[in-house]
Amino acid sequence: MGAYQHILLAVDFMPGVEQVCGRARELGKCTGARLSVIHVIEPVIMAPPYEGMPSLPVDFEQQMLKSAQDSLKQLVDKEGIEGASWSVEVGSVKWTIIEHAREQDVDLIIIGSHGRHGLERLLGSTANAVLHAAPCDVLAVHIDN
Ligand code: AMP
What is the sign of the dihedral through the CA atoms of 18, 22, 25 and 31? Predict the structure, then answer.
């Protein structure tokens, strides 16, 4: 089995994201693999579900997309993930990461894991969901809480 060729790093902007980025940076350097970074936005329900609730602005999703793109670019620069391509996509977090990995011939997904217990664990986590559906290896980076 050869070294990894294409690593996909999935990021949110929560505390601990630096640890996950650090691992991806190290692994990218050791393997020489191409590195891509993805952040996923869940689709927004535009119509107010209850009477009397104000509607969201028409361009709300566009604004969210733009601000997520700005944040992701800043994160990639700040974490020194040199040469990485990055993208913000809209969809289900789990399935968008999986689809992206399939389409882009990714051979390693790097994702953070909070090592939850009890009810939180029963409800599942993104890392767990991705691990069970991934078409390739998955590295769950332990985030110190
Ligand atoms: P969570 O299960 O929400 O604690 O997230 C665990 C890990 O899943 C994070 O550290 C990220 O690597 C990844 N993740 C969570 N939300 C997103 C998202 N919206 N886009 C991309 N990756 C995410």
Answer: negative
